[in-house]
Design a protein that fits this description.
With 480 residues, this protein is of the alpha/beta class. The protein folds into 3 domains: 255 residues, HUPs (Rossmann fold); 99 residues; 54 residues, no CATH class. Helix content is 45%, strand content 15%. A 4-stranded parallel beta sheet has the order 4-3-9-10, covered by helices on one side. The chain has a 4-stranded antiparallel beta sheet with strand order 5-6-7-8. α4 packs across α5 and α9 packs antiparallel against α10. The longest helix has 25 residues. The chain is elongated and about 90 Å long. It starts with a strand and ends in a 5-residue tail after the last strand. 40% of the residues are buried. It binds one RNA strand of 76 nucleotides through α1, β7, β9, α6 and β12.
Length: 480
Amino acid sequence: MRRFTLYDSMTREVRVFAPIAPPRVGMFVCGLTPYDEAHVGHARTFVFFDVVARALRRWGYRVFYVQNVTNLDDKVIARGAELGEEPLALAERNFLQWRADSERLGIRSVGYYPYATDYVPEILSQIQTLIDRGYAYPADGSVYYSVGKFGSYGRLSGQRTESLRPGARVEVDRSKRSPEDFVIWKATTPGEPSWESPWGPGRPGWHIEDTAITLRLFGPRYDLHGGGIDLIFPHHEAEIALAEAATGESPLVNYWMHSGMLNLGGEKMSKSLGNVVSLSEALDEFGPNVLRLFYLNAHYRSPLDFVKGKSLEEAREAYARLALPADRMAGVLSRGSGDRSGTELSEALAKEAESLVDRLDATLAEDFNTREAIALLFGWTRRLVAELPRLDSYSTDALSDLYGPYAWAEEVLGLFVRGPEERAGAWEKLVPILVSARARARARGDFVEADRIRGELAAAGIRLEDDASGTRWEFAGPNP
RNA sequence: GCCGAGGUGGCAGAAUGGUUAAUGCGACGGACUGCAGAUCCGUUUCCUGGGGGUUCGAUUCCCUCCCUCGGCUCCA
């Protein structure tokens, strides 16, 4: 297992990671509330934690990555009412859309997506325990957590309850004994999905679902908890209070990681501000590689600015440059069947490729510095551009060695993902026929015909490039 | 008001107690081209929000102020 460090939001310092029961790592990240489509801001967080899980696995840890789904809450119910859709069905629909999008984005590291509503028995028993221990009280059919009872409340966020502004953004609930208390079981009104409970029909509050899930799956303590930085208060604070009060064990989580927000024009991207760009939309236009490069091109804790019509366009240019040698090599390797003989790599270059992979791991192992890793990859691309003209002459082994740093990025960063059509055989046979027809047209000076062929191919997503050695072709546009 | 994260070139965005402060985008000039594109070569740019302190030396550590963003009880 490789040693690595990460910034722990609880201690506010960079710490060496040590799992409770190596090589196993329990990792929990707060997922979506699927009351609507996911947007490019959500995806930043999940791409980052995907990289964390990928890296840990590469480094020898056995990661069980759980990401919950808040498939029922006020927003889901409200949106359902708006659309005339059953709340749970609405959540299911949006969640499946999210799964499809995250699949396209290359997020495949999550082992389990538990639904909040599948953990109602665990939630009810945790609530009972909290009541028995004096940390929670029923009122008007709901149950509230008594924040004042939990001594270390506020440790993660640095918030002191006395300095909070009750009702700053959310209306104060009159059934609470104290304004900082939060609901863990919510009495339902007729027509809403509900479960029987000792306190009457109701549904789970937001904060408690996560601890019910992690207590069940990981036990009272686990290794890593992640989420957007906007969740620190109150959500993560509440998780700590709920779990530690219920189990009597501390700390609930050994390492807290929070990723920065994606801002749009300096503001947080959110539905209420109406400045969202949906993830599906962005994927359709730019593909996963461009999006991932854009996200990972900043440090995960920094706020990142998203400028519509600019950010992803820039990332697309940058990706095109970064991927040029990688795509060429992948093309050469996939076209041939079996091992090709050819020029072998000079020892110096082979060594360079190998040591670069080490440096990439080392860079990422320092609090997941994806930006530095990408800068190193650009360096490799610069290095290989010189090899471009003679790429075809290298042996399979040599090409694999040269591809090493890109393979690393593919494994850990999820870049250089290629879609199935790039491997589809038909194009490989048909495009060269058209390319040679165009070459003949050019040779006899019929540029109208030559440009027509190039134009038609471009429309079909095939880009032609002429250089000294002839005409190359490749797939243009976003990779799916 | 309180808590937290940030403030680096035209833009995005890294890093470091000490030579030219990375990388990418953009722009400009040149090579190449039937044209285009890609590519190559070259040029272009920040003394790191303001002030003070520590130090031989700070952009980096400390203090203070300003600004931006997030949170302040169901936001990734």
